[in-house]
């Protein structure tokens, strides 16, 4: 399906579910971007979930978002249970605005929901020649080290920096060995997941996606990954006023209340300390790319290059929609 047609359909659905025209556009653009970069677990596969939560009044389609300016550099946002895309869009714009004015922007958001890809918002800051760090917590998926009960989310860590080219440096990674969205897509399509990424509810290794969702996901790097998940839970949950310590609701399975996810966005000017940042980052990347390579490696890529390549390639193609998601779209348009 062509992007323009898909955006028209998505906007129509979000408008039908009570979002404003501008908020519908924000949500549609974010979902389409996820499809274009190949992050299918954060794209159209979540559309029905958002609509279900709006229908059950767990996402507020007409939020009264409160923005508190603590200082010229610090902002606290109460998203009033808005859809996460809208809260994050306001948050990154405020962070950029602060950084452009004072050199640094620190924005905390509470009462939000799942907002898709952190890297999507990081790119907005990088395009303004800013460095950014973005944190968000998520529903329980990862246990603390040594535990069998999920408490932490896959809690992505995101870092973005301008480079000497049009391809930004964007590191956007969850602290789990596999993205939870990928497990959900596998479960829906009755496909297996890789070995060594999850345990079932009894603590046994599993490649069954449905059993993995009932059990726990494994963090990267053992206790280090668990520690990083805990760090993100503190930064985006405890600090912001959002839910934390396993209290974030699962958007697909838990309809007992709003998610109250927290986000923390930090942006700052890249030339705050060294005025020749662009020259220095060019030297940094060039030097690292020139080192000897192991057999089978043609070139060293920095985080963001593969994603940019996928986006560029997919932007010239129609977006493929599998039968399950196509069925969801038809149903959402009809109901």
Description of the molecule:
With 335 residues, the protein is of the alpha+beta class. It has a domain at 63-176 and 219-269: Ribosomal Protein S8, Chain: A, domain 1, CATH 3.30.1370.60. It is 40% helix and 14% strand. The chain is built from eleven helices and nine strands. It has helices at residues 3-16, 21-36, 47-55, 84-102, 118-126, 180-188, 209-214, 223-238, 277-289, 305-315, 323-334, and strands spanning 66-69, 74-78, 104-112, 130-136, 157-161, 169-173, 198-199, 216-217, 261-269. It has a seven-stranded mixed sheet with strand order 1-2-3-9-4-5-6, with helices on both faces. The protein has a two-stranded antiparallel ribbon with strand order 7-8. Helix 1 crosses helix 2 (21-36). The longest helix has 19 residues, at 84-102. It starts with a helix and ends with a helix.
Question: What is the terminal separation in angstroms?
Answer: 22 Å
Strand content: 5-15%
Number of E-type strands: 9
CATH topology title of the domain at 63-176 and 219-269: Ribosomal Protein S8, Chain: A, domain 1
Any low-confidence stretches, pLDDT <50, length ≥5? none
Form type: globular
Radius of gyration: 20 Å
CATH class of the domain at 63-176 and 219-269: Alpha Beta
Biggest sheet record: 7 strands, mixed
Helix/strand/pairing category: alpha+beta
Task: Compute the average pLDDT.
Answer: 96
Strand arrangement across the biggest beta sheet? 1-2-3-9-4-5-6
State the share of residues found in helices, binned by percent: 40-55%
The CATH architecture classification of the domain at 63-176 and 219-269 is 2-Layer Sandwich
Topology as H/E string?
A: HHHEEHEHEEEHEHEHEHHH
Q: CATH homologous superfamily of the domain at 63-176 and 219-269 - what is it?
A: Malate/L-lactate/L-sulpholactate dehydrogenase, NADPH binding domain
